[in-house]
Amino acid sequence: MFLRKDISASRKKQYINVLSEIYDITNKTPSQLICEAKEEEQPYIVNGLPRIRDINDRKITDLGKEVLEHI
Questions:
Q1: How many domains does the chain have?
Q2: Which of 18, 46, 64, 66 has its CA 20 to 30 A from that of 32?
Q3: How far apart (Å, rounded) are the C-alpha atoms in residues 60 and 56?
Q4: How far apart are alpha carbons 71 and 57 in whole angstroms?
């Protein structure tokens, strides 16, 4: 779960608490949120031109606001 191996036990506990709260709010795991965000970063075609969704129009932005409201 943790990429860094030198994280203290108390830091791991903090991370787990935060990730658990995010899951409780969004019903999505961190991996699911990352996959969703990466999908929304992909360009799409409008009138034959590639477009990239603006950060303000992505689900992850709304979820971030939702999480902050609960903190």
A1: 1
A2: 46
A3: 9
A4: 23
Task: Annotate 36-57 with b (16+ C-beta within 10 A) or e (fewer).
Answer: beeebeeeeeeeeeeeeeeeee
**Is 17 a domain residue?**
no
Q: What DSSP letter does each residue of the chain carry, written as one string?
A: --S-S---HHHHHHHHHHHHHHHHHHS--HHHHHHHHHHHHS-EEETTEEE---GGGSHHHHHHHHHHHH-
Q: Does residue 26 have a pLDDT over 70?
A: yes
Q: Using 50, 70 and 90 to split pLDDT, how confident is the model at 57?
A: confident
Q: Pick the more confident residue, 5 or 58.
A: 58
For the cut 80, the answer to whether the pLDDT of residue 21 exceeds it is yes
pTM for this entry: 0.67
Cα gap 33→27, rounded to integer Å = 10
